[in-house]
Design brief:
The protein contains six helices and five strands, in the order ββαβαβαβααα. It is α/β, with parallel strands linked by helices.
Length: about 140
């Protein structure tokens, strides 16, 4: 069962949902599903093609912005920031949800969101983004 953390009205994050859980994301209004883990990061994970198929079948858009732990680059943040500016409801995931939360925070900083609000939202969801807030 997916442990989904709502970061703000637009974005939720989680560890990797099962393919059959994609439809339930669509039912909650999610329009875009973002994968932040690299292809084949761990054994037994669905491929990007399988993820895209499950997400598309549920009527959503699949976007891969993959990076390994500690390897987030400015380009990743800019791509996610641009996605957030679309106004669409986004669910992002990685192995634990931590990378996705950090990416959301970095993108929020790029989009001019209040760092205190970002920090509070991440803390409430159980994530520490203090390193991101220092960088951005």
């Amino acid at each position: 069962m997916m442990d989904r953390k709502q970061l703000d009205e637009q974005v939720s994050v989680s560890a990797e949902p099962a393919l059959e859980e994609m439809a339930s994301l669509a039912e909650t209004g999610v329009e875009v599903v973002v994968c932040n883990r690299p292809e084949q990061e761990a054994e037994g994970q669905p491929s990007f093609a399988e993820l895209e198929q499950a997400v598309s079948a549920a009527g959503m858009t699949f976007v891969a912005i993959p990076f390994s732990r500690g390897q987030m680059q400015q380009a990743h943040s800019e791509e996610f920031a641009s996605l957030l500016r679309s106004g669409k409801k986004v669910h992002a995931f990685c192995r634990t949800g931590n990378r996705s939360c950090n990416l959301w925070a970095a993108a929020g900083c790029l989009n001019g969101m209040d760092k205190k609000i970002l920090h509070q939202a991440a803390q409430q969801a159980g994530f520490d983004i203090s390193g991101i807030l220092v960088t951005y």
